[in-house]
Amino acid sequence: AQGSVAVSLSPAAGAKRPPQRPAGVPRYLAVFNHKGGTGKTTTAVSVAAGLAARDKRVLLVDTDAQGNVSVSLGASAERSLYHVLVMGLRIADATRTVRPNLDLLPSNETLAAAELYLAGRQNRDRVLSDRLSAAAAEYDYVVLDCSPSLSLMNQNALVFADSVLVPVACDYLSLVGVRQVIKTVKNVNALLHHPVQIWGVLPTFFDGRAKIAREAVGTMKQHFGERCLAPIRQAIKVKEAPAQGQTIFEYAPGTPAADDYLAVVDRIIESRERGVTGSEAGAARDAGSWSADRADAAAEQPGAAAAGA
């Protein structure tokens, strides 16, 4: 994002070790990918709106200075995440209800200044958690739309989150980009002592007629197993909806893409209700290195690089 502060994933001197929450059960979900053009904001908005439609109370947090979440929902606000982080404004005074069961904590270009504020803080990776945790407890789910960068804001988002959803466009370059996401999450676990985990890899812009799309999804399924979700089918309606300030469920209900996103929503709910038990918990703890190895292999697989329709 414009004005973001690039950082290495290491705690500031004297930083406190954060208290740990159970990993692998999606409640605080960061939608994250270093690469742009993967449908990240559309996914964050659709997941949050879908959860709200399923009668879950949801807080959607825009951590991207571009402020595309607000545009997508036809919302505007004078107060934003900047005011919460830098000025200490209460969450309740910065959020607005944009749909039934759905509250939005918006962002805009002022968030770039918040990056500079974070850089000077001792516990710089924990500021968002400190500001958000108490209010977040009042919601069934918190969904964070992250910027396509390695920034202090994203570091804060990952330290707050318990799970990460990675949208991946069905092309070779996007597949390569998954490696950096996995390694970043692994570093948050190891260096910042926070057990956030990759909950799912979501293929987006899937066109079943294109050979590269079919091969990319096949490669993701092969290397990520059940963590690879069913793809979101490509549809012009998905791109048109934000221009109308509507979600895909409002603009084109019952279309394949809307149904695909509802399937993701239902899987999130099922995953949380089922929880993490026994061997699943062990698998979640090992997910960082497990997925990093497979991400390298997936990106290097020759079949995934083939192009053509």
Automatic annotation (TrEMBL):
Residues 281-309 have a biased composition (Low complexity). Residues 28-194 form the AAA domain. Residues 1-23, 275-309 are annotated as: Disordered. CDD domains: ParAB_family. Coiled coil: none annotated. InterPro entries: AAA_dom (IPR025669), DNA_Partitioning_ATPase (IPR050678), P-loop_NTPase (IPR027417). This is ATPase. It comes from Sorangium cellulosum (Polyangium cellulosum).
